[in-house]
Write a structure and sequence with these properties.
Blueprint: E1 4-9, H1 16-26, E2 30-32, E3 35-37, H2 44-52, E4 59-60, E5 64-66, H3 72-78, E6 97-104, H4 115-122, E7 126-131, H5 136-149, E8 154-160, H6 165-175, E9 179-183, H7 191-201, H8 204-211
């Protein structure tokens, strides 16, 4: 049975692809982005391969590759593609699988299907990545509410950005959730600097134990 976890976020552009790349490398695992919306620039799968130093054989092809950089439901409509839930089953792998969502939990894949619905069907541990900047308390607690409402197993929250001890404390306290650490924001990350920052700041032991 595949050992898998989901890396999702409170928003887009917060660094969760960095986190997913470093986590895939640390787990000696596979990476899968089920739905990629936007193909003109570097895709998340390509970024993970580059930043994590992940072999192409460990990058599982996307179920859907949509051209327009937009919400997946709109991108699929513009591409005249129908997103079918049955194509979003977890792949079988012989090493841990890191699955990265798109944007936040309530991003729509169709007019009736959200990413959170797919994750809830899988029932695998979720890591919620969040910023440390202003506004993150509200966004993070709302995301945790969405996870709990769907009875999803939450592995923990990972902060990304500059140190903000009070914000990090209150999110963990009010959210009733464990912190997995804080990945600092890196200027022009390389595989080496990203892995060093991840190893120094993220509780990989707790993640590995949860996937054992």
């Amino acid at each position: 049975m595949t050992q898998a976890c989901v890396v999702t976020g409170t928003d887009t552009g917060i660094g969760k692809t960095w986190f997913a790349a470093a986590l895939t490398q640390a787990l000696d695992g596979y990476y899968w982005k089920p739905v990629q919306a936007g193909l003109e620039e570097e895709t998340d799968s390509q970024a993970v391969a580059r930043l994590g130093g992940i072999s192409p054989a460990r990058i599982i092809p996307e179920a859907y590759r949509l051209k327009t950089p937009a919400s997946p439901h709109l991108s699929a409509r513009l591409d005249r593609v129908s997103v079918e839930p049955e194509r979003l089953s977890l792949p079988e792998t012989d090493h841990p699988l890191v699955v990265e969502g798109a944007g936040g939990l309530l991003v729509p894949l169709t007019d009736r299907l959200l990413f959170a619905d797919v994750f809830a069907h899988w029932q695998v541990p979720v890591i919620l990545c969040t910023r440390t900047t202003l506004g993150t308390i509200n966004h993070t607690l709302l995301s945790l509410e969405a996870l709990k409402h769907r009875a999803m197993p939450i592995l923990g929250v990972a902060f990304i950005g500059d140190e903000n001890a009070e914000t990090q404390r209150v999110i963990a306290e009010i959210g009733g959730i464990r912190s997995l650490g804080r990945l600092p924001w890196l200027s022009g990350p390389t595989p080496k600097t990203l892995q060093e920052a991840f190893a120094e700041n993220i509780d990989i032991g707790r993640i590995k134990a949860a996937l054992a």
